[in-house]
Fold this protein.
Amino acid sequence: MARRPKSDLELPQERFWETKSLAQMSRSEWESLCDGCGKCCLLKLEDADTGETYFTDVACKLLDAETCRCSDYARRKIFVPDCIVLTPETLDQVAHWLPPTCAYRLLSEGRPLYDWHPLLSGEANSVHRAGASCSHRVISEDDIADEALPERIVDWANVDPGA
């Protein structure tokens, strides 16, 4: 029997995201919804008049630009006090800050996960291979002045390939 590469994930026995509401999920189920795209960690600008959200290619200082994972997830609120902790209770308030491909946003809108989502593909890196992550596309907020953010707005981070 061939061994699967280390990057492969164990697929869940049941598709819990299709049978449970977000509020009914266990903590581990909730956390497994994150596809690892890193787009939620991009700095965003919001138009005060229209409320429209603009994604930049500038990432939180804790985001690993290669893996698209937080470098200190457990203690992120200590280093980034305004980091949003996503919960079923806060999701409606911050959904517009999440990329349209985000599993939390998709499920809250009654939409299915994309086939590249790790829960469906069984591969942690499928989000990167699908081009749906910010891997190698971003710079750290430590490397840019706040006033330069409007020049860093990008379209690729806020695109829904299924729309």
Observations:
- The beta strands are 42-46, 53-59, 139-140.
- Residues 27-32 form the longest helix (6 residues).
